Here is the input.
Amino acid sequence: MIGFFIAILSGALMSVQGVFNTQVTKASGIWITAAFVQFTALIVCVGAWLMTERTSLGSLLSVQPKYMLFGGVIGAFITFTVIRGMEQLGPARAVMFIVVSQLLVAYAIELLGWFGVEKQPWEWRKAIGMGIMIVGVVVFKFK
Here is the structure.
């Protein structure tokens, strides 16, 4: 049950962060904003690490496969695309497309067993659920 609340909080924080970042971009450039976001995230993460777990930095060397270490690179492009999406579509529409895209890609990752995720069987109910979400986006998009 706690995972449910954490996921809800994550979605809410992502939406608020996207709006904040889009507003900051109006006063600066998109890459300056993205760099600032990533830098401040680094400061928070280092602070949290110092106050909590203190896992060795060397443990990153044992990560396999090594391409898994590129999450931060992906994060920079996530920041960029969220800002651009919100600028062009507004927060609600952008987040709807972001969430549907996340769901489609996450389900494909599960179905195909990519990136070390345990392969899951095809389920019609999940496909129908995604279809309903897509219809919801279309309904929301039109006036």
Residues 91-143 form one domain.
